Amino acid sequence: MKNIRLLNQVTVDNGLTKHTGMGQVFEAYLMVTLVDFFGDVPYSEAFDITNLNPATDSGESIYNNALGLLDQAIVNFETDAPAEPTFDFYYQKDWSKWIKLANSLKLKIYMQRRLVDPSAISSFESIIAEGNYMTNVEDDFQFTWGTNNTNPDTRHPIYAANYTPTGAAEQVDICLIG
Q1: pLDDT over 70 percentage in the chain
Q2: What phi and psi, each to the nearest 5 degrees, are found at residue 81?
């Protein structure tokens, strides 16, 4: 999260809106996932290096912040940028798919909030009516490992470490329990 915020600080300063949007989606995704697994978690004080015991933020406030990040990300994906990321291992620079991901994360948040916030239902229905959310496997938010073995090595780390010109470097034992 700290690296995402550092990235976004640099990208905002340089007008790299697509990079910024990606960072905003990553941050929203991480925070929503933490809330879904653990409930209230540190967020607003989490990156203050002088505070060794950050207070927790409510899940509601984190969801609200995530919705704001996702709205900003959508704007950033729709804005022309002076440069695009060199690598996009998720959607290969298809910004419409990034927007679908952002809207799908918003749907998830609205579904989580529907029982405590009646307005979440209308927000949910609005996104569904637009139809701009993930609807098929091609839209999946799935990291695609590359095949490049030179700098940068884009292969999966275990694959890269185990399949070398001289043979496998390590044996991976698989245990099947059945």
Answers
A1: 92
A2: -120, 150
For residue 178, what pLDDT is reported? 47
Task: Show the 3-state SS of the chain.
Answer: CHHHHHHHHHHHHCCCHHHHHHHHHHHHHHHHHHHHHHCCEECCCCCCCCCCCCCEECHHHHHHHHHHHHHHHHHHHHCCCCCCCCCCCCCCCCHHHHHHHHHHHHHHHHHHHCCCCCHHHHHHHHHHHHCCCCCCHHHCCCCCCCCCCCCCCCCCHHHHHHCECCECCCCCCCCCCC
Question: Among candidates 174, 29, 148, 172, which has minimal Cα distance to 86?
Answer: 148
Q: What Cα–Cα distance (Å) separates residue 177 from each residue in 171, 172, 173, 174?
A: 19, 16, 13, 10
Residue 131, CB-side half-sphere exposure with 13 Å CA sphere? 0
Give me the pLDDT at residue 87, please.
85
Summarised one tens digit per residue, pLDDT across range 83-114 is: 999 888 899 999 999 999 999 999 999 999 98
